[in-house]
């Protein structure tokens, strides 16, 4: 079934405003998203060895990464690993593959490491920086994180030849602060925990996405939006799920306004599982570490 068979034609939209695929074109810049993106840019520009971005499932971390990929200059080579797995050496192969570096399948660990080092030196000599982004990094083992730290030891005089950006769920933040990963944590120059949206953000988010798709932005009533927020906990992905189906229901009923009752029907029908995120507490801001702070530890 085409998207027009759902509700886009009925509402006069150019596309579905609440799809689940990460799309930088639809990114709504809350204050937290702007700060998270600033930290990403800061990490790259400052040649930070490791930058860490964490957040609950569905808060928009991957969308931020996609926006970053669009924003980097031509002098930046970026490799993206979406879900790395494997033991010693496998992560190195993932990295080389993400950076489009051709290697002999029979190379051992030493050969792979040398190939990466040669590539980094070539790019550095050409005036380029190399950034490796690892999404879903909470799935990495402690051993894999230590292997990544070793890769950041490849340098030329004072400059880092390889920069790492780790993006993951809150468990990643817990992992890198373990005593056993103290050396890894010392290489993290900037980190940010992306929290869920506030009630006001959710209202602005829904208006933004509706307008971007060709709507007026007023299709959802305030009561409907309040109900969406209460049942999504401010998580964009869950917000999208509820709003998308609510628009299907409204179109089926011939209503161009999504009322609270329509949202309630969606929730009562249990079409999908909606779970509230864990409480973030007060830790929802950026932390940056200067060289002097790192040296003092």
From TrEMBL:
* Region feature Disordered, mapped onto this chain: 276-297
Pfam families registered for this protein in UniProt? AAA_22
Q: Native species of this protein?
A: Actibacterium naphthalenivorans
Q: What is this protein called?
A: Type II secretory pathway predicted ATPase ExeA
Alphabetized SUPFAM superfamilies for the sequence:
P-loop containing nucleoside triphosphate hydrolases
Q: Where is the AAA+ ATPase domain?
A: 47-192
**UniProt GO molecular function:** ATP hydrolysis activity
């Amino acid at each position: 079934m085409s998207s027009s068979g759902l509700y886009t034609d009925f509402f006069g939209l150019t596309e579905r405003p609440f799809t689940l695929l990460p799309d930088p074109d639809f990114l709504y810049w809350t204050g937290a998203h702007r700060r998270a993106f600033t930290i990403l840019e800061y990490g790259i520009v400052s040649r930070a060895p490791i930058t860490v971005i964490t957040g609950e499932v569905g808060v928009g971390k991957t969308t931020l990464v996609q926006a970053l990929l669009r924003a980097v200059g031509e002098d930046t080579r970026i490799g993206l690993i979406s879900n790395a797995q494997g033991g010693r050496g496998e992560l190195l192969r993932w990295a080389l593959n993400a950076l489009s570096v051709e290697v002999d399948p029979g190379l051992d660990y030493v050969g792979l490491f040398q190939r990466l080092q040669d590539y980094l030196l070539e790019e550095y000599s050409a005036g380029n920086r190399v950034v490796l982004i690892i999404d879903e990094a909470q799935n990495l083992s402690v051993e894999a994180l230590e292997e990544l730290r070793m890769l950041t030891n490849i340098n030329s005089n004072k400059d880092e030849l390889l920069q790492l950006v780790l993006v993951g769920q809150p468990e990643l933040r817990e992992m890198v602060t373990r005593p056993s990963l103290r050396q890894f944590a010392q290489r993290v120059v900037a980190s940010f925990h992306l929290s869920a949206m506030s009630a006001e953000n959710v209202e602005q988010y829904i208006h933004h996405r509706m307008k971007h798709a060709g709507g007026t932005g007023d299709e959802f009533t305030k009561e409907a939006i309040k109900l969406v927020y209460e049942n999504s906990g401010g998580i964009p992905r869950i917000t999208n799920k509820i709003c998308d189906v609510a628009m299907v229901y409204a179109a089926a009923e011939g209503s161009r306004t999504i009322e609270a009752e329509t949202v309630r029907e969606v929730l009562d029908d249990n079409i999908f599982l909606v779970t509230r995120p864990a409480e973030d507490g007060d830790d929802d801001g950026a932390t940056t570490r200067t060289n002097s702070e790192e040296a003092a530890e």
